[in-house]
Write a structure and sequence with these properties.
The chain is mostly helical. The protein has one domain: MetI-like (MetI-like fold), CATH 1.10.3720.10. The protein contains 14 helices and 2 strands, in the order H-H-H-H-H-H-H-H-H-H-H-H-E-E-H-H. The longest helix is centred in the first third of the chain and has 32 residues. The protein is globular and about 75 Å long. The C terminus is likely disordered.
Amino acid sequence: MSARRTNRLIIQALVIGLAALVLAPFLWLLRMSFETNAQIFAFPPRLWFAPTIGNYLALWQTEFRHSFLNSTVVSLASTLTSMVVGVPAAYALSRMRRHSDMLSLWIIASRLAPPTAFAIPYFLVYRELDLIDTRLGLVTIYLTFNISLVIWLMRSFFENTPRAFEQAAWIDGAGFWQGLIRIVLPTAAPGLAATAILCFVFSWNDFFFALILTRSDAMTAPVAVVNFMNYEGWEWGRIAAGGTMVMLPVLVFSLVVRRFLISGLTAGAIKG
């Protein structure tokens, strides 16, 4: 066996081992979601067991179903609104000749502070505006960090779009908005997809603001899972099923569109 092939096998083994190490907690959670409490606490753990969907059926008969719907509605609404507001702003910054870098830095700086720094002010304002435990309140709070993400990422994509395309469209008689919609946005389609995906994932996975600003009506799925940890004991089967339900849509969606995610995360990088 040649040294080159040996090195390739070693690298492949390391990659497989690393992937197994990263995926082990998720696979263990998925396994637990199909086990009964007796099987979960069996010692030593059994490799083979009779799977059951009882945890999922019991979970879907609780308030988790409503919370899952809340997560879906709030995440989609915040993502759509962030794109509608942030994309034109990113385009304007990409075409500015002065102070665009400074403005972009100030915009992205809103994501640098920890969420705990804003918890009390947001809670007090929401209480006065009667936005506690509302979907509108969650959508609004998610806009505060999603819009800055949209502007920061999309600005890089728009800067990589040659202005000659727009100028050619203008010469042919297209207006400003026609050039933007028909020329610039299709060219930056991978960036639009990647940015929308990231906004959705950040909104879907949020736990802190959803815990602070909701009670029951607008509770999201990540917070609802915690309700199965009570003084009577932790319902491990339902916790595992709830965790899988929260994780699986984002995981599957990310795998399907992973090409766009890679394009978005590497926007602006130096490529050789």
